[in-house]
Amino acid sequence: MSSPSRPASGAAETSQRPRGGGALYGSGLRTLSIATVAVMTLGLALVFFYAPLEAEQGFLQKIFYVHVPLAIVALGGFVIGGLLAIQHLRTRDPRWDMRSYVAIHMSLIFGVGALITGSIWAKGSWGHWWVWNEPTLVSFLIVFLLYATYQPLRFAIEDPERQARYASVFAITAGAFVPMNFIAVRLSTAYLHPRVLGGTSSLPGSMALTFMVCLAGIALLFATLCKYELTAKHTRAQVRALRRRLAGESATTQARRPRSAAPTLNPAATMSARAAGRPG
Amino acid sequence: MGAALIAELPALPLHTAGKYVAAAYVVLFALVLIYVSIMAVRMSRIERELAELLQDAESHADPAGPASAEDVRRPESTPA
Fold this sequence. Notes:
heterodimer; A: mainly alpha; Four Helix Bundle (Hemerythrin (Met), subunit A); 9 helices; about 70% helix; disordered N terminus; disordered C terminus; B: mainly alpha; 3 helices
């Protein structure tokens, strides 16, 4: 997975972890989870008991507080995935690839949420589940479908190092496409879709406050789930490494892994470094 | 106390757009719930693998046989 001239991912991880094997990804997860629950609860309370009813759409407009934050966080996650992929290509450290993968994976889930809630809003507001002549909807769908090819792309490449490299190139290219796509739509079309970014000043103060709290809640949920996923993947890698070690395999040789779309950290090197008592 | 508080809350217009709003929020919570359920399955798999590894480690350390599950759970140095 790692080139000979670069430190193995496991060794790199070990350098950032206490000798005793303290948690790396799991640290702060509880605080983050509590903050997420608190902010999301506050957001829901504000949506239903503080924010006024909108004049045109009435109660239906409450979907705005879940649909728009989901879409913004999903798109932001795609861009973050691209930035993490840049870091992966710069350092060749598989941990950045793992983070990029998790960010994109989670953004896809949030994207599904944005599409479904958007459809429900469209049905309630316009009487149709989907409107093809609405550029923002279609451009979001295009971005979503573009990223839907990310996992098949990874799965199609067996060599883990090549898989990580190609996936990073994809993440960077697609990540750059996200803002360009939406800027192009904004510049070239009439303002049919409700505008949020740059337009919150037109919202009444109570609505803007509620929206910001909801956005913070969804962003915190995104961060929590990413951290949760990273912790689980890291733990699984450690368990696999331990299994191999107990089975008597050489800890320094990379065991052949089954083909997978998910990146794998190099636990063998982690265990080797730890067994040798090296800090990194 | 609780009933009085609920009675004081403003009524939500659930008869018109309420079903759409409810559906949108249910989608969000369903997504989170499905994700957490998948993670719970993964965690239980990791827990099972760890239990197997503990048994393997015990059998490596003690050729006479693996220690009982109770021994593994409560080492002597750990207060009960």
